[in-house]
Amino acid sequence: MNSVEFKNISKVYGKQTLLKETSFAVEAGTFTVIFGAPGCGKSVILRLLTGLEKPTSGEVFLRGENATSLSAGDRNIGYIPQSFALYPHYKVRDNIGYPLKLIGAPKSEIDDVVARTAELLRITRLLDKYPNQLSGGEKQRVAIARGIAKKTDIFIFDDPLTGLDFKLREQLFDDLRSMQETLKATFIYTTSDPLEALMLAEKIHVLDDGKVIEAGNIETVYHQPQHLRTALLLGFPKINTFDGTLEKDSKSIICKTKLFSFPVDLNQSEKSDNDQVVVAVRPQYLKLNEKPSGKSIFINANITLAEDLGGEMVIHMDADGVYLLGVERHDSFSQQEGAVEIGVANQNLMVFDAKTSRRIGQGAN
Ligand SMILES: Nc1ncnc2c1ncn2[C@@H]1O[C@H](COP(=O)(O)OP(=O)(O)OP(=O)(O)O)[C@@H](O)[C@H]1O
C-alpha cells in the first residue's frame, strides 16, 4: 500500500515550471528520502503534500484516497520544517505538547505523548528547560519531537539537519531511523546531501529537472543507477565520467573512450540507436597500482593531489588531460604524488546514452 502518490503533478510559478508532470509513490512504513540538488523543488513537493500549496495540475493521493482538494488541516501529516522556531517563553515540554494543546487534547494525553517523544529523542532531562538554555542540536531535537508528537502515520522532514555539525547529524540519523522503526510510520525526508541520503534512506526518489527520474531501494539505486544524473548526484567523491563511442563488430560491441576501450553488455530493455555514450565509474572502483579481479581496463595517470579525509584519502589524478578521482584507505595507500596505474574491473564501468542519459549497459566481464 502507498502512503503517498503523486500523479502527473506539475507546479508552475510565473515563468518557472518547477515540477513537470511527475509521478511517484511512497510505500507505507518506509523511510523514504527525496533527494536532489539544492533548489530542485523538494520543499515544494512537501508543501504540495501537506496541502500548504496546490499543484498547477495533477493529483495527490494520501493513504489511497484522492487528497488533491483536501485542506492542510484535514491531511493529518506530521511536518518538521527546514527552519523552525521554538516558543522562547515555553518550556521544552510545552513546546513539544503545543500542537496537541491546539487541537484540545486532554492534559493526560499530552503528558503521555510528550514523555514518549522526549524518550525517543533522548531529551527527557531537558523537559523543564527553556529554549535559550539549549544547544543548537538540542533545539533541533525538541523541534523534531514537536513534529512527531502528532498522532499520525505520515511524517515529513524538510531537510531538518542542515547547519548541524556532522557528529551531531550522525547521532540524529540513528535517532530518526530507530524512531521510524518504533513508530512504523512513513517518514519522507528531503536532502541535497548525498551522504545524508545514503545514511538515512531505505528507499530513495531522485528529483531532477522537474521529475522523479529514478526511485527504489537505496543500495540498488546507488550501485546500479539507471540515470546518469543519479550517478552524478548520489555519491561522494563525485563519479568519474568519460565520453565514449560504441562500435559494433560482428561479434561484440566495443566502447571506445580517449583513455581506454572495453566490450559492453547492452541492457535488452533499453533500446538505443545512439552510439554516443557517457561511461561512468565510481572513485571507489579505481584500483591504484592493484589488479582488479575479472576482466579490466588500465589507465596510466599522475597523482596531482592526495587529500587526507582522516580514514580515507581522496586521490586527484590526471590522465592525458582527463581529471580522475579515486579513494583509498589511509592505512593501505601512502603514495602522495607521481605515476600510478589505475585498474578498473569492466563490470564497474557503467554506460549511459549521451542523449537520453539513461543507462544502456555496462562493461562485459
Ligand atoms: N512560493 C514560491 N513562489 C515562487 N517561486 C517559488 C516558490 N517556492 C519555490 N519557488 C521556486 O522553486 C525553487 C525550488 O524551491 P525549493 O525550496 O522546493 O527547493 P529545494 O529543492 O527544497 O532546495 P533546498 O535543497 O535548497 O532546500 C526555488 O528556487 C524557487 O525559485
UniProtKB/TrEMBL annotation:
Listed GO MF terms: ATP binding; ATP hydrolysis activity
GO cellular component: ATP-binding cassette (ABC) transporter complex, substrate-binding subunit-containing
Domain of life: Bacteria
UniProtKB keywords: ATP-binding, Cell membrane, Membrane, Nucleotide-binding, Translocase, Transport
SMART domains on file: AAA
Keyword Transferase attached: no
Family annotation (Pfam families): ABC_tran
Protein's UniProt keywords contain Lipid metabolism: no
Annotated ABC transporter domain residues: 4-234
PROSITE patterns assigned to the protein according to its UniProt record, in alphabetical order: ABC_TRANSPORTER_1 (PS00211), ABC_TRANSPORTER_2 (PS50893)
The protein's name in its UniProt record: ABC transporter domain-containing protein
